[in-house]
């Protein structure tokens, strides 16, 4: 399951532009990570926020995409939170994750949520800039083998809690997530086919 893991190391740079969640301006809009586990190293510039509070059942790519295209923050659209830093509505709140020197931030992803039948939830997070400084981080995405089975673990379900997710493979799970996120993408435009 982990003898040929899928791993990605992604350097991230966020501009010094101050975010305006109400106008849809983010460093990164609200999202969950698709895979199993993300390990994040960051500089001393704040900006990462996590959602704490009531969960919203639907976290579809289209909902998140709409939130990031000027419709306000994820929480504002769903009535679950506010776009202003630290503001709260309906019992939820965006919380700042303060950088700690020498520490890593660990985010659980959608694949781990699937394996645990929702017992461990993927971390809904976003990046906003309130400091006006550039921000740098490095994300390490760790996934099992492409062909590893992702089925609800027997200890995470029972007669009163049946599996909420059908079995799949790690690779198919990721491909499905990418396809949903990029549903309108049909590949590069070839020369002579421009509109």
UniProtKB/TrEMBL annotation:
Residues 69-84 have a biased composition (Gly residues). Gene3D superfamilies: B-lactam Antibiotic, Isopenicillin N Synthase, Chain. This is Fe2OG dioxygenase domain-containing protein. It comes from Volvox reticuliferus. Residues 4-144 form the Fe2OG dioxygenase domain. Residues 58-68 have a biased composition (Low complexity). InterPro entries: IPNS-like_FE2OG_OXY, IPNS-like_sf, Iron_ascorbate_oxido_reductase, Oxoglu/Fe-dep_dioxygenase_dom. Residues 58-91 are annotated as: Disordered. It comes from the Eukaryota.
């Amino acid at each position: 399951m982990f003898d040929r893991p899928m791993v990605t190391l992604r350097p991230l740079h966020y501009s010094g532009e101050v975010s305006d969640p109400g106008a849809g301006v983010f460093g990164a809009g609200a999202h969950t990570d698709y895979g199993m586990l993300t390990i994040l190293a960051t500089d001393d510039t704040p900006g990462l926020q996590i959602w704490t509070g009531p969960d919203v059942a639907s976290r579809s790519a289209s909902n998140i995409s709409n939130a990031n295209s000027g419709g306000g923050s994820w929480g504002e659209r769903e009535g679950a939170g506010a776009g202003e830093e630290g503001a709260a509505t309906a019992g939820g709140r965006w919380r700042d994750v303060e950088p700690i020197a020498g520490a890593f931030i660990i985010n659980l992803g959608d694949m781990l949520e699937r394996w645990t039948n929702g017992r461990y939830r993927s971390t809904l997070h976003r990046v906003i800039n309130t400091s006006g400084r550039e921000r740098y981080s490095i994300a390490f995405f760790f996934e099992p083998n492409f062909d590893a089975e992702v089925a609800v673990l027997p200890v995470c379900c029972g007669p009163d809690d049946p599996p909420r997710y059908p079995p799949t493979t790690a690779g198919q799970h990721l491909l499905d997530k990418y396809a949903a996120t990029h549903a309108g993408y049909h590949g590069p435009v070839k020369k002579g086919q421009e509109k």
